[in-house]
Amino acid sequence: MHMLLLPLLLTFLNLSQAQPPSDAPLSSTVCIIGAGIGGSSVAHFIRKYSPDLTPTTKIRVFERNTIVGGRIATVNVAGETFEAGASILHPKNLHAVNYTKLLNLKAREPSSGFSLAIWDGNKFVFKTIEISSNLPLFDKLLKLPFIENLVSLVNSGLMFVRYGFSLFKMQNFVQSAVGSFSKYYEDTGSRPIFETVDEMLKWAGLFNLTTRTLQDELVDAGLSPLLINELVTVITRINYGQSVYMSGLGGAVSLAGSGGGLWSIEGGNRQMAVGLIDRSDVALHLNEGIKSVADLGDHYELNSTKGNNYICEVAVVATPLDEINIQFIPPISIPERKLQHTHATFVRGLLNPVYFGLKATAKIPDLVATLEDPELPFTSISVLKKHNEEESTYKIFSRKPMADTLLNSIFSVRKETIRIDWAAYPQYHAPEIFAPFILDGRNLYYVNAFENAASTMETSAVSAENIARLILSRYFGKEVNP
Ligand SMILES: *[C@@H]1O[C@H](CO)[C@@H](O)[C@H](O)[C@H]1NC(C)=O
Ligand SMILES: *[C@@H]1O[C@H](CO)[C@@H](O)[C@H](O)[C@H]1NC(C)=O
Ligand SMILES: *[C@@H]1O[C@H](CO)[C@@H](O)[C@H](O)[C@H]1NC(C)=O
């Protein structure tokens, strides 16, 4: 008898010695709904900040699609891979920079010196010139890093002629917002854990930008109506499918997304989400959506589309709740929000110069952008790659699907067409009202509450990092001070 008991007792003693000093539970499960950049970042930061929890804490990630990445996705045209969803990163997107290093990914700089024109439906109201090489002299004379990505340096001269000093005012406006945003990278020792989006934005000095329209902010910043109605409009339409009446913070982020030094990840940005999930020791459930989340007192029960039930002590929603149907028991309450649908249409073929009143396809600029006019059937058309004289791959953004008849008038040759309807980002209305990070006052969290501030890969990562810290401090009783 005693002989048998002894080993058991010893095991018990060993266990109690290994027990963490805090009240942290011995074993628990964190369930994450959504394997986009938000969900994968929550998993990453929980592991990064608390490696000691790994043996006792299981992380499950549920993804209703068959692949990881969410709104970051690639499309294959003529054997080449192009970004189909979230496509650009800013040089100050420090989480993305770190992910790239951590995951051994390669950054890719966008091609510079392409031509841009603004189309009003009948004519080009502004057009840059096509040039093949940068002129270093101009670089020194007129440095406008802000629009470097949109156009070549010579062309920033043309821009200056049209828009004048307003361009610099626009640049200052953007730099100030980007500077405030950088506070979210401060050391966790001095950076609070935020329980609400409002608190998080106020701390960085960004909240006020969500209370007014971009138009009002830019008028106050002294920008000319011409610049607002043309270039700024073109940029907010391309990045968020919306006009300058969107809220100011989303607008500022959108303008930052047209500046110099933009980059992406070779082979596709979605590799960030893939890599983070791979190295975060998670159980990944692909092709399995969550139908209901029921609070059963000390844990949640998640029922999936595959008919499975999962018990989770912590549950994280990392997908916009606006267009999916998850039943919460008891019900949760979040402000109503509409998502802006952006239709991305990829065409392999050749644009028809006649549509634009031109004589030759070669005269059509690499990026045709448009003004805010409900009659215009598309937002932008850009060349992704010139395969040869007869054939290029183009990406078209529009607010409605591009009908075949319309495509037939815009293109003289069309060999391949791929259409994607993205529920891409929120429709921004100032003043923004934010959903809670903590949906039920317990351990049910919502990463995408932050999307009403601005929706980008990086803002998702920033929100996810804060959610990971909330979970570690509220559930596991850990302050994060790496
Ligand atoms: C990026 O990684 C470095 C090195 O691990 C770290 O010191 C820095 O805080 C990280 N930056 C962010 C924004 O997390
Ligand atoms: C935001 O607006 C409020 C009210 O108008 C004002 O008191 C406050 O100083 C503003 N905050 C910032 C950071 O500009
Ligand atoms: C979830 O599944 C369990 C087991 O089948 C069931 O008892 C429970 O009622 C389901 N919950 C919901 C909200 O459907």
TrEMBL record:
Alphabetical UniProt keywords: FAD, Flavoprotein, Glycoprotein, Lyase, Oxidoreductase, Signal
InterPro entries: FAD/NAD-bd_sf, Prenylcys_lyase, Prenylcysteine_Oxase1
Origin: domain of life: Eukaryota
Keyword presence, Hydrolase: no
Transmembrane segments: none
Family as reported in the entry's similarity comment: Belongs to the prenylcysteine oxidase family.
Secretion signal span: 1-18
Keyword Chaperone attached: no
Source organism (scientific name): Medicago truncatula (Barrel medic)
Name assigned to this protein: Farnesylcysteine lyase
GO BP annotation list: prenylcysteine catabolic process
Domain named Prenylcysteine lyase: residues: 148-477
EC number(s) per entry: 1.8.3.-
Entry's Gene Ontology molecular function annotations: lyase activity; prenylcysteine oxidase activity
Pfam families documented for this protein: NAD_binding_8, Prenylcys_lyase
Cofactor(s) this protein requires: FAD
